[in-house]
Write a structure and sequence with these properties.
about 375 residues, alpha/beta, 6-stranded parallel beta sheet, 14 helices, about 45% helix
Length: about 375
């Protein structure tokens, strides 16, 4: 074995854990010899970035796993998704340094789309660590061509490689067609799934629903689902209050919790329009899941999303924070279920062409082989 992959797998409530499991399966299918080093924090998202004994032990366990990779056949490579916040990045930097010490080539994968803001917001010492860490890498993988520019002025040494995210299909074609078949005979189902926070667009989504005319809301059912982030309690309370107010006025709306991997088929099987009006993103896996499920996707022009769906062709896009535009598009789709189905079909076709796991696995394996052969 000559490739070590650092990443979390269980539990299945975080998108990145689902991604790691998919990546391991893809690399195995590509015949890539891999040793997995578990970096899981088996608690919820509120523990991310905190210093406590469990996180310290997890970091140490990962470090020991990397040092143990000295036994791998040369040439050796360490693949690691990098964080976009101070302490987690420093942890990643230590792990990458250990990889260099045992003679490994380094490939890092940025799954976000806000690295420059993170970099400029850190103190000078952390910025120095970021530069030195990235300078020591052979390649940086990003999710879309536009996201490669995030490293301008920070590092010019690693090769920037673009590999779009991927997801396994959430629904099969029969389930999608069954949902399409009765859309004109029932309320149109409009859903949101992400952390219930302002940055993910949950507040904008709730306000957009509130701005719909009464007769349009009466033709739809709305669901807001996702985890409750302790760092954004005010956002959650605002969404909950809006949902309560709308429900009291007769709107069919629900505020739900986390949808785990086992619940995704049911969630997307009951979704006609999927909205994720994020304020910042890389290339969200949940959007790809919605595309794979044949849902009409409504999102924002941030990060790699405009390169993931094309406005008016296989998705609908609005500017981040433009609640009026979001409400207008939701109204158009609710009032025209046939157009909603057509948009969902084209989104499914986009997923089939671009975001299937086999396509992603071949692309990641190509990056790793290039670095190992260089």
């Amino acid at each position: 074995m000559h490739v070590a992959v650092v990443g979390p797998v269980p539990p299945p409530y975080q998108g990145m854990t689902v991604y790691t499991r998919m990546l391991l399966d893809e690399l195995d299918a590509e015949g890539m010899p891999v040793r997995w080093i578990d970096s899981s924090d088996h608690r919820d998202l509120s523990n991310m970035g905190r210093i406590d004994w469990e996180n310290l032990w997890g970091a140490a366990r990962t470090a020991f796993g990397i040092l143990g990779s000295v036994r791998l056949e040369r040439p050796r490579l360490l693949y690691l998704p990098i964080a976009q916040s101070g302490l987690p990045f420093v942890r990643d930097a230590i792990h990458l340094l250990l990889g260099r010490i045992v003679g490994m080539r380094l490939v890092v994968h940025l799954h976000g789309g806000d690295f420059p803001s993170f970099y400029t917001g850190e103190p000078g010492m952390v910025r120095w660590i970021i530069r030195k860490t990235l300078d020591g890498c052979s390649a940086i993988v990003v999710l879309a061509p536009s996201l490669g520019t995030q490293f301008e002025g920070i590092t010019a040494r690693p090769a920037i490689r673009v590999v779009a995210n991927a997801v396994a299909p959430v629904l099969d074609e029969a389930a999608i067609e069954a949902r399409y078949a009765d859309i004109t005979e029932r309320p149109v189902r409009v859903s949101f799934l992400a952390a219930i926070t302002g940055p993910k667009g949950a507040v904008d989504f709730a306000h957009a629903i509130e701005r719909l005319p009464d007769d349009v809301r009466a033709r739809a059912r709305f669901v807001i689902a996702g985890n409750r982030d302790g760092n954004f309690e005010d956002d959650y309370r605002l969404v909950a209050a809006t949902v309560e107010r709308l429900a009291a006025d007769g709107t069919d709306i629900a505020l739900e919790g986390v949808v785990d991997a086992g619940g995704k088929a049911t969630f997307f099987g009951e979704t006609d329009i999927f909205a994720l009006p994020s304020h910042r993103e890389g290339q969200p896996l949940v959007v790809l899941e919605a595309l794979s499920a044949g849902c009409a996707v409504v999102s924002t022009t941030v990060g790699g999303i405009p390169e993931t769906v094309t406005e008016g062709e296989d998705g609908r896009l609005v500017a981040s924070g433009d609640v009026d535009a979001l409400a207008r598009i939701l109204r158009e789709l609710i009032e025209d279920p046939v157009a909603t189905v057509a948009l969902g079909r084209r989104g499914r076709e986009r997923w089939e062409r671009c975001y299937q796991p086999r396509v992603h696995g071949a692309a990641i394996a190509e990056v790793l082989r290039d670095v190992l052969g260089g």
